[in-house]
């Protein structure tokens, strides 16, 4: 029959599919090696042989740094064992990703296999400065110093179709230089030039839009960036979730193995997930699938439901439910008790929701087609709400590569705006007095900060909620600070998942607890309510309203020359802002503020410097920014 | 959404009784709470009172589905069972048919069951009796109507039809848009 399910007790049966050796590699290797004095004295493993080869090369060379050499030997072996241990600790799904990565590399470039593998190991133990140094030196000797292409070269290249191999090599070299800028740089070239070139190259090589590459470069350090982009090119493994309402995972696995499906449990964190490696039958049309024994579902979409942790006999709202994977998982965790309201605004997508829920035997669901933003009006008082907000999909580029080119700043900000509206109505539909619940889980399949931390931070300010741990013990912590934005420190308890680190789709999960049903009234909303009632207040506010826009307008006029230069950079969110020093001059801040005020509501709005505000008079002075924003817009 | 009228209830129960017989009683009087049938957009839904309470507060035009869909009334006021009712028919079914693994796929594509694909059949099945179809691993696959009684089944040639196809779980893929 198939393979055993428990990966820890797997019996080795001869060389596997992936153990295939490259033909003639032995002979090739011998040519590079100095003759071995004790050849054939003992049989070495593949790894040991490679290490021995390296040792011999070093021995053949005149010694450069005595101390470095002495240090090299023992840490190298310790890294080996360390990386092996960490390999064992990985989840099966992650191990599969690593294997695949290694395989891809070997196919792509068989000559560099040795080095790559060495480098990969060293990545896991960054302590190995010395060995890396020598490795890099080897590289440098092979191909001379990386030189930035001149203007003519760039023009010439632009006329021709891009040579991808050349671009790839350039990306590699460029990153190497950037990671070691002090020593590797070319004299007289700024970091900016290198970064711009890298950005262009990445955009051509992976065919992203310039804007999105810029976003990614802001999000990831250089070492991770290429990994992330590379993992967006390979699809994630097919995963499925057992429907425990109808069957057990063990039985399902057995039934699928009998049909010729090769699968494994998803990982320690999921009791219902299975990973499918390959299958001789279409996995979405087996009789087990039709009978509702499992649901095809990305591993990442199990996480928000686990974070939600629904209890039996609760009232739960799934705001954006299509195609019903998460909804059915909630029902499964509740054992078909209680009530779930599954809502989506798209009627076409709801057909598949209804189909899936019936197929999986879920009986406690009401499916509705409302706009999520109307929610507390339609129905409220839920124990828990899951908000899987519509997003730009920058975490699932592997699934939908069109995102690479067709998303720009506007799309992302439009999503962010919708998400902010949705998260407020989600929070409002929760009953904070619920005995068991009062929780909101917010998740997106996007990696950008605008759609994740920013939205949650906004909700924290607007409603009586606080962040609680998601209950997921892996994943990266959310950003507390990003570029010039500072978020609430509790955003540490949100979780981010990336394709290159966890082999899941890019994902963000935040869990909020509502502690009071009262909606805090923002001071700026208070004021217009006051105006008709209290004439004195009106008098006071009127001059403030007329006074504030004036300086803004002046600034704008004075700015125009400067703006023409900067506007392009700011709008395309170029790296210029990234490299700007933290302590900006006050003048610059004022300019920025003026720009932001003009640009409209969606853009990030830096706080105006204190001096630019009219003198603070009690609490009403804080309403200044709100006024400022409103007045010019009316004028337009 | 509204309760069924007298005729509608009769049409529904007559149809259900063809498959589950007197077990129909168990569907209506359940020990775990009150369950009821509701009509919404010509479709009949079977749901618990608790879900009903929540669903009443949703505007009619926004309500898509609730509980389990049993089937729909045609324009001529006949009741047609959908495969979505299988979850409730299968446990209470009186007459059952098991198909061989080879014929499973054919049935899931919407074909009738031939004598050659017949694995087992309940004794004393009469002609035109409603039956629930199972795979040999006891997974319910759909339902249909017996074309031949059990006695006749023994004699007929291998290519003769023994069960007429009515609904099968393949419809979850084939007719997803018309299911509910």
SSE topology sketch:
The complex is a heterodimer of chains A (636) and B (180).
Chain A: H1 25-32, H2 46-60, H3 66-89, H4 92-108, H5 113-124, H6 129-142, H7 151-159, H8 164-179, H9 181-184, H10 191-205, H11 210-219, H12 222-231, E1 238-242, H13 249-258, E2 261-267, E3 270-279, H14 287-290, E4 294-296, H15 303-308, E5 315-318, H16 325-333, E6 339-343, H17 347-359, E7 365-368, H18 375-378, E8 384-388, H19 403-406, H20 409-428, E9 439-444, H21 453-462, E10 465-468, E11 476-477, E12 481-482, E13 485-486, E14 495-497, H22 499-502, E15 507-514, H23 523-533, H24 535-547, H25 549-571, H26 575-579, H27 586-599, H28 624-635
Helix pairs in contact in A: 8-10, 10-11, 20-21, 25-27
Chain B: H1 6-20, H2 24-28, E1 35-40, E2 43-48, H3 49-55, E3 63-66, E4 68-73, E5 79-81, H4 86-92, E6 96-99, H5 101-108, E7 113-114, E8 118-121, E9 130-135, E10 140-146, H6 150-155, E11 161-168, H7 171-174
Parallel strand pairs in B: 6-9
Antiparallel strand pairs in B: 1-2, 2-4, 4-5, 6-8, 7-11, 9-10, 10-11
